[in-house]
Amino acid sequence: MDTRKLSYFVKIVDSGSITKAAAALHVAQPALSQQVSALETDLKQRLLIRSKQGVEPTAAGHTLYRHAQTILRLVEQARQDVAASGAAPSGRVSIAIAPYSMASSLTPQIIREVGRRYPDIVVHLTEIFGGVLSEAIKNGRLDMALIYEPGKIRGVQFTTMIVEDLHLVTHEDVDVAHGRSTVTLEEASSLGLFLPEKNHTLRQIIEKGLADQGLPLRLIGEVESVPSLVRLIRANLGATVLPKSAANALFPDENFKVLRIIEPALQSKIALCTPDHEPLSEAASAVLIIVKEMLQHRLITKYAADPSQA
Question: Strand, helix or coil at 301?
Fold first, then answer.
């Protein structure tokens, strides 16, 4: 098995047709079919199902496709790293930032600092939810992510960076807390909430906290858009639950109440997620250091302003 056969196989699966793949690769169709047959002989498995509509990978083909992507990516990364050895890091680095989190407020700083230190690195930023994160990291579509820590997931590793108490965020006219800076979980449960969908770790923390206390979840709607969430709370159509840093970043206006939930307190963790099965590229490693520095600075600033959180 060699990388050329693997690259041909990946192109065939992506194209859904040996004919289309042959045209894209500028390889004769019979020669391409022979390469697939050689792979099937080598692996003693049928890899493709052929029909008039094209080709589809078998179960074994899907497995090979996934591994082939990783192998080809590592080979290309090795070429790039060797070629760039001794030079400043360069290339594309992809980072996912959790919506509904303080981490999203770091994006301008990340872009600014990476640009200052490593002008040849292009940072690709996206927002993503935990339900699809593990596959994106394992398949190499993402280099790293700052998300709410969901627990152990095979193929990725989490480094806890920030642990925060959750807060209820409401319009100032909502009749709750009565001058207090805290609200009990029972009081919070009496309000209608806008939350992310079920695969979001924050939603799971809130649901578990309520269920453990035998309290209902009064869900008004599932909102994935942060700007929409802000508009809904500003219109006094419901409340939401966030860590304080995220609430301060997303709801800076004075007409919002941000109340720490107690009895019991609920906590969330922001974690740095990276693959556990392959090393990061030189460029991604450089960006990772910058992200860790920013999170550490944010922690120091936070605790200096509020020592009780340390």
Answer: helix
| 178, 298 contact by CB (below 8 A) | no
Strand partners, 270: 148, 162
Using DSSP's 3-state secondary structure scheme, residue 163 falls into: strand
Q: CA dihedral in degrees (208, 209, 213, 217; nearest 10)? A: -80
Query: Could you count the other beta carbons within 10 Å of the beta carbon of residue 11?
Result: 17
| Whole-number Å distance between alpha carbons of 135 and 142 | 9
Percentage of the chain exceeding pLDDT 90: 45
Task: Say whether 270 sits in a helix, a strand or coil.
Answer: strand
Strand, coil or helix: 94: strand
Give per-residue pLDDT as tens, 226-248. 889 989 999 999 999 998 888 88
Sequence-separated (6 or more) residues with CB below 8 Å from residue 53: none
